[in-house]
Specification:
Strand content: 5-15%
CATH superfamily of the largest domain: Vaccinia Virus protein VP39
CATH topology of the largest domain: Rossmann fold
Structural class: alpha/beta
Number of strands: 9
Low-confidence stretches: 1-16
Number of helices: 14
CATH architecture of the largest domain: 3-Layer(aba) Sandwich
Length: 371
């Protein structure tokens, strides 16, 4: 999966420092501004229920949309017109009789929470740190941080909602592609640890894929743990999946209690990943498996970088690096945790290293086994 914006191509001669012309860069910045307004408008449509109303209730005039969603008609009119002007909605009729329609393609991306292309929550992830820009400026000056808790429900729910379809639809097949991992998970009574479980969708997906397993999810963020418990109840797996509000570095007290441990998209956020990985190693014992899923960034820094690198550096600037530095001491990893960095953390935690697992396409993520 890639982002939809494309930067102007820049020809670089080896050994020569260069860049875009002033006109080219001005065009890029202008296009980025238009994209920013798109993201802000998507946030409104998502949080106010306007997209869902258009997807389920069909086309609407501004008055009808406002009435359906208990919102203000004048604001609904301006939003509908903007969405039509930028090409997200289609429009028929004139004046007060204009009807606005959400086509199937955008509807899937903006409202289908089970689709692998569901990206409406991305706007929430962008807006969460935007609301904390004064705190981020202070952190950049002082070397402090802005925690995940301070980013609030927008960030917490965005991550859970965007990862949910990937865990539900692709996690089982990804793990089945690694026979020795699948074999351990499929044993009756297998004990699985899910470190940094967030909203719990990874734990729930593991429970669905391996119905004889017992899953224990832990997370440092209490609202995420509460959300995970609600999700597990709704998914019908609360009898086999339990969630605990806990610091991952304390897991060593459960020495040898688990057969497999997972850390899904969380190691790069940890202030002290080495301590957590060391504790996880103790929790699974000498024969246990430890699997890390993290961002599929390049092995080496290269500039200009591709869209995945651009996206991950964006996350890092505004979310993951400030979150990691909100506690002290901190490794200050950031989102762009390359293979060599994870391997170094693993060795310091007592593992021999980290190998990439052949799990196939899993969006923006890569799986590693710590051995």
């Amino acid at each position: 999966m890639t982002t939809t914006s494309h930067l102007p191509e820049v020809s670089i001669t080896p050994g020569e420092a260069t860049g875009p012309t002033a006109d080219a860069f001005a065009e890029r910045l202008f296009a980025s501004t238009l994209g920013t307004f798109d993201v802000l408008a998507v946030y409104l449509g998502d949080r106010l229920g306007w997209y869902r109303s258009l997807a389920t209730g069909g086309s609407a005039t501004p008055a009808e949309l406002a009435n359906r969603t208990f919102t203000d008609e004048r604001y609904a009119q301006e939003w509908l017109e903007q969405q039509a002007v930028v090409g997200i909605l289609t429009v028929t009729g004139e004046g007060e009789n204009r009807r606005f329609t959400l086509p199937p393609g955008p509807a899937e991306v903006l409202t289908d929470a089970d689709s692998l292309t569901y990206l409406a929550p991305l706007a929430r992830m962008v807006l969460a740190p935007a609301a904390q820009l004064p705190a981020l400026l202070e952190a950049y000056r002082s070397g402090g941080g802005v925690s995940w808790d301070e980013l609030g429900a927008d960030a917490r729910e965005s991550q859970a909602d965007m990862n949910k379809p990937w865990f539900e639809q692709r996690l089982a097949s990804a793990l089945a592609a690694v026979p020795d991992v699948h074999e351990v998970l499929d044993r009756p009574g297998t004990r699985i640890l899910d470190v940094g479980c967030g909203g719990g969708w990874s734990s729930i997906a593991l429970a669905h894929a391996y119905p004889y397993a017992i899953v224990h999810g832990v997370d440092l963020d209490l609202p995420s743990v509460e959300l995970a418990r609600t999700n597990a109840e709704a998914a019908g797996v609360a009898d086999r999946v339990r969630f605990e509000h806990s610091d991952g570095s304390a897991l060593g007290a459960h020495e040898g209690s688990y057969d497999v441990a997972f850390a899904f998209e969380c190691v790069h956020d940890m202030a002290q990943p080495v301590e957590v990985l060391r504790s996880v190693r103790q929790a699974v014992g000498p024969d246990g498996l430890v699997i890390v899923m993290d961002e599929a960034v390049a092995d080496e820094f290269t500039a200009p970088g591709d869209e995945i690198e651009q996206l991950m550096y964006g996350y890092s600037l505004f979310i993951c690096l400030p979150d990691g530095r909100s506690a002290s001491p901190s490794e200050a990893t950031g989102t762009v945790m390359r293979h060599s960095t994870l391997a170094s953390y693993a060795r310091r935690a007592g593992f021999a290293g980290a190998d990439v697992l052949p799990t196939g396409d899993f969006g923006l993520f890569r799986f590693y086994r710590l051995h």
